[in-house]
Amino acid sequence: MPQALTVRSLLGDQGERLKLKIVAGASFLDKPITVRELNRPGLALVGFLDHFRPERIQILGLGEQSYLRNADPERLRAALAGILKFPELPCLITSRATRPPKVVTDACRRAGVPLLLSGLSTAELTRELSDILDARLAPRATVHGVLVDVYGLGVLIQGEPGIGKSECALELLKRGHILIADDAIDIRRLGGGILRGSCPEPLKNYMEVRGLGIIDVTLLFGIGAILDRTRIELAAVLEPWAKTSLVERTGLDPESLDLLGVKVPLIRIPVSPGRNLAILIEVAALNQRLKGRGYWASRVFNKDLIRRMSKKSA
After folding, report:
1. HSE-up of 294 (CA within 13 Å, CB side)?
2. What is the mean pLDDT of the chain?
3. Which of 144, 263, 299, 308 is catalytic?
4. Which of 40, 76, 184, 223 can pair with 71 through a Cys bridge, CB separation 3.0 to 4.6 Å?
5. Catalytic residue at 99?
């Protein structure tokens, strides 16, 4: 679940980065910020509140500031009352360190809504604030498995206990790939449906290998064998080989794994003695990169086969 933060914590933790200072509503800084999206209240300032999103931080850019300076004070006062009446509205922020008219300051003070000034331009403020809110409020989950960066592609390896996930990750490390997390993986959903995986702090740099115990990856393989985070773009599930199980042979029917509402391409790898799982995952990662560029070997092969059969029958 998203973790709420407050205007006070935003001002304290990110005040320097965003060049923020408080103008009005200093007694109401504990108002929660619960969503990542921002809002430019241009239409709301003229009294049009249909589809207004009061739960978002309201950004007053150059356009809004120009209107505030030239609007009729009475009409503006009424419009501000309509905007600031929502209890879930966290705060207003003006860009370019431009102090708004007194009518705005007074309205925020009466409504108990913090009014902040940012020294950044509107574009800079929007970009930086969006990054901060993404990092703090992104939907998140913790899953069991191993996360490895293989040829620049984040691969989530899962399977039942004892199937060989950590051993597979060790072999990938020996082959020059990079470990992000073993056993527990923190996943955040960022904008654009991007899934970012990282390691919980107590487990960082460590792996648990059955028969060996806890090992320090950085000491054994070097600092270059560890990465703080990576984008998850492929999931591999290790399964016991059984003659009765259905094993994908062509790749024409792709599967996916739902993580925080995002569909991640999924492959199932049967495990049996003698199979080199690390090489299989390397090839799967390379094949997924080709698919990302629009080339599916199975589909090309299938079309070619159908074309040849059509020629032969003709």
Report:
1. 0
2. 93
3. 144
4. 76
5. no
CA distances from 244 to 18, 71, 240, 270 (A): 59, 75, 11, 12
Count Cβ atoms below 10 Å from residue 242 Cβ, excluding itself: 10
Using CA atoms, how far apart are residues 248 and 269, in angstroms rounded to an integer? 9
Sign (positive/negative) of CA torsion 5, 11, 16, 19?
positive
The question of whether 228 is a catalytic residue gets the answer: no
Tokens, residue 219 = 């000491």
Which one of the listed residues 51, 102, 243, 249 is annotated catalytic?
Answer: 249
Active site residue 249: yes
Q: Could you confirm whether 144 is annotated as catalytic?
A: yes
Q: How far apart are CA 112 and CA 114, in angstroms?
A: 7
pTM of the model: 0.79
Residue with tokens 């049009």: 48
Q: Which among 165, 177, 188, 196 is annotated as catalytic?
A: 165
Structural domains of the chain, ranges and CATH numbers in brackets: 5-137 (3.40.1390.20), 140-301 (3.40.50.300)
Q: What is the mean pLDDT of residues 99-128?
A: 95
